[in-house]
Design goal:
The chain is of the alpha/beta class and about 425 residues long. Helices cover about 40% and strands about 15% of the residues. The strands form 3 sheets. A 5-stranded parallel beta sheet has the order 2-1-7-8-9. A 4-stranded parallel beta sheet has the order 4-3-5-6, with helices on both faces. The longest helix has 30 residues. It starts with a helix and ends with a helix. The structure holds iron/sulfur cluster. Iron/sulfur cluster (SF4) binds next to helix 18 and helix 19.
């Protein structure tokens, strides 16, 4: 059989499998919804959000199965004050008064609640970041707008690109924005180790990382959020494995499944979650519904004799229970856990990464004396409901600004800016 024929046959096979899985998914939804109105599954990863919208999965499944977006888009969860800090550093490189005196002008220091960039040796640093970050609004402005005004803001595809810029221009200072989850942090940590090895002293990182398990804990423990199970991120899980998610079942009695990114992967992951819920329900049919937070009637199953996996793994071809030990070791060498603020959600204990003492020389936050201040007032006034979208409290069209005041061309919040944002996904694929 020729290669093209084989490809076409594979596509047909996949199509048939997708239809078969869809039938099974909808059959399970019908079964489960005999005793409930809806089933709420949260896809934690922005790439899953795009896949679910782009492949038309949300429209294909029984509407009683609600697929809610979670806080897994790295750009979306970057706090407003973190953007402000990056902007403040970028402003330090404008070449106006600050370049001469090493401080920002008085007007900039006192405006609103923007973090203060206190000192900077001239010429100021260049801010280097991924393209998605450029249009994310801070309290008053964005990196894109600051660049248009003359700030030295550059777009790269990797942390290593940023290090190369620093190596090529030893007289300038370069601040790379460390945005992302456990997927990105090891590569940034490896870049810091490479900078140390090469004795590069003009490369810094502004750490804005977030880690996924503490965010899941915040969601699982929240009374505002109604989630029956989690579609877990494939990429993050290749690094951390499946074990850090076991608390979801142990402590919150919620099923979860690590899932890949093809349509078949997503459908199979959903099927595995529903099947688990169905099995649990069958075994627990006569047990009373748990009190308090418990929305999942399976509590009595967890008395120590349940031998089934605590976390389902649909993405076994890439994810091992122990994850990638080498990547984690690199990350843990350079960074340590710290509290972090998630945009629209708030502070989550232990959900960020800060430089360890031995690598403090690379920390842009201390190098440029960036102080954070609360900057949520403007955010609340804007009417943006990104926080509620990322907690699955609403779906994007329920935000009154969606597709009116807020569009990809003129975004009000980061969920509309990022290519992985839930609002951008709905806008692109799911507008009525
Ligand atoms: S539609 Fe716009 S304003 Fe509303 S939640 Fe999404 S990004 Fe925020």
């Amino acid at each position: 059989m020729k290669a093209e024929q084989r490809k076409a046959t594979r596509k047909l096979d996949e199509g048939a499998m997708e239809r078969a899985l869809l039938g099974k998914v909808n059959g399970l939804v019908a079964e489960l919804c005999k005793t409930r109105k809806t089933i709420n599954l949260m896809e934690v990863c922005g790439t899953h959000t795009m896949a679910i919208s782009g492949f038309g999965i949300r429209r294909a499944v029984d509407p009683r199965l609600r697929l809610l977006s979670g806080p897994g888009c790295p750009v979306c969860v970057t706090a407003q004050e973190e953007i402000d800090a990056a902007i403040d550093i970028a402003r330090g490189g404008l070449g106006h008064n600050s370049a001469k005196t090493g401080t920002v002008p008085r007007s900039a220091r006192t405006r609103g609640t923007v973090p203060v960039f206190e000192s900077c040796p001239a010429p100021g640093p260049a801010v280097v970041t991924f393209g998605d970050m450029m249009r994310v609004p801070g309290t008053l402005t964005s990196l894109e707008r600051e660049k248009a005004k003359g700030a030295d803001v550059r777009v790269v595809y990797s942390a290593l690109d940023a290090l190369r810029l620093a190596e090529e221009a030893p007289d300038r200072q370069f601040v790379f924005l460390g945005v992302g989850f456990e997927t990105t942090a090891p590569t940034v940590a490896a870049t810091v180790l490479a900078a140390q090895e090469s004795k590069v002293s003009n490369f810094f990182v502004l750490p804005m990382f977030k880690t996924i398990p503490p965010a899941l804990e915040a969601i699982a423990s929240s009374d505002r959020v109604n989630v029956d199970g989690f579609i877990l991120p494939g990429h993050v899980s290749t690094i951390i494995g499946t074990r850090p998610y076991e608390f979801l079942r142990d402590k919150y009695h919620l099923p979860s499944c690590v899932v890949g990114f093809e349509a078949l992967d997503v459908l199979q992951g959903i099927y595995m979650l529903l099947r688990r819920m169905h099995d649990d329900l069958g075994e627990n049919r006569d047990s009373p519904r748990p009190r308090g937070r418990g929305r999942n009637p399976v509590q009595s199953l967890f008395s120590g004799h349940d031998q089934r996996p605590k976390v389902e793994n649909q993405y076994m071809r890439s994810v091992k229970p122990e994850g990638n030990a080498k990547a984690r070791q690199v990350m843990d060498t350079v960074f340590e856990p710290c509290d972090a603020v998630w945009r629209g959600i708030g502070a989550i204990p232990g959900s960020g990464l800060a430089f360890r003492k031995d690598y403090a020389a690379f920390d842009a936050r201390s190098r440029f004396h960036v102080r954070n201040r609360q900057s949520s007032i403007v955010n609340r006034k804007s009417g943006c409901r990104c926080g509620d979208v990322m907690l699955g409290v609403i779906v994007p069209p329920e935000c009154k600004l969606f597709a009116k005041a807020c569009t990809p061309e003129s975004p009000v919040g980061p969920c509309m800016v990022s290519t992985e944002g839930a609002c951008a996904a709905y806008y692109k694929y799911e507008r009525a």
